[in-house]
Design a protein that fits this description.
elongated; 10 helices; 9 strands; 2 domains; Rossmann fold; Helicase, Ruva Protein, domain 3
Length: about 260
């Protein structure tokens, strides 16, 4: 195991079984596992599906996986998941993974960018990250990650996993979450860009009112047209509020 990869391998068969049951893999599913590690989840997945794609950054683990499983059953990609082209694998992907906790947030943003290519995702993450993912408006955990993911996915927290289920045990508790892409009408490129800019600006200055936090991104007239109170703060807005505001900004061609 290489410490720089932040590897903690799931070793408890009880939690392996719970994760596989939650995924409920079917023979023809197009499954991509991120960070298969010692194949605790990979092996039972291959008992249920014809083929699994595995994205693993550790060359030694890739070699071990290639030796253990036939290439026609397990397609091993020695790659960094932050750079891997998930869309190239195919449509309707089912993503699975015990995500490295040190890069979990950028990975989740990567998945959001290819949400239209996904059927679902089942991930094990640090419990605190899952709390942020599923948090609602006006709560302490609600932030940029919450909004950007809830813009693309319906998310369900499934169950917690204790440190003792891993080898070596991490210093934090973990949780398993399901992501399912939403079938909302697309905002369009301009509004999508505005959405990302508004969310970033709002939560970068989350203690300020939106009137001040969004200066240079949206003016008061835009806020009011979108039905957003200028005196509210970023954490008070639901995802639908951000979508309306982004649409107004795009329609007006930016701030005035």
């Amino acid at each position: 195991m290489r410490k720089r990869f932040g590897q903690h391998f799931l070793a408890d068969p009880h939690y392996v079984a719970r994760i596989v049951a939650a995924i409920d893999p079917q023979p023809d599913d197009l499954l991509v596992e991120i960070g298969p590690g010692a194949a605790a989840i990979t092996a039972p997945l291959l008992e249920r599906v014809a083929r699994v794609h595995a994205v693993e950054i550790d060359r030694d683990l890739c070699a071990a996986l290639a030796d253990r499983f036939p290439a026609e059953r397990l397609v091993v990609h020695n790659a960094d998941a932050l750079e891997f082209d998930f869309a190239a694998v195919g449509p309707r992907l089912r993503l699975v993974g015990n995500l490295p906790y040190n890069i979990s947030t950028p990975l989740l943003f990567r998945f959001a960018a290819v949400a239209d290519r996904l059927r679902d995702g089942h991930f094990m993450l640090q419990k605190e990250v899952v709390d942020r993912m599923v948090a609602g408006p006006s709560t302490a955990a609600y932030g940029r990650l919450s909004v950007m993911l809830q813009h693309r996915f319906a998310m369900t927290r499934l169950f917690d996993v204790p440190p003792g289920a891993f080898r070596p045990p991490p210093q934090v508790r973990s949780a398993v979450v399901r992501l399912e892409p939403l079938s909302l009408p697309p905002l369009g490129p301009a509004a999508d860009d505005a959405f990302a800019r508004v969310v970033l600006a709002g939560f970068t200055k989350r203690r300020k009112t939106l009137r001040n936090a969004l200066a240079g991104v949206a003016d008061v007239a835009m806020l009011e047209e979108a039905g957003v109170a200028p005196q509210a703060r970023a954490e008070n807005l639901a995802v639908a509020d951000y979508r309306r505001l982004a649409a107004v900004i795009a329609a007006r061609g930016g701030t005035r």
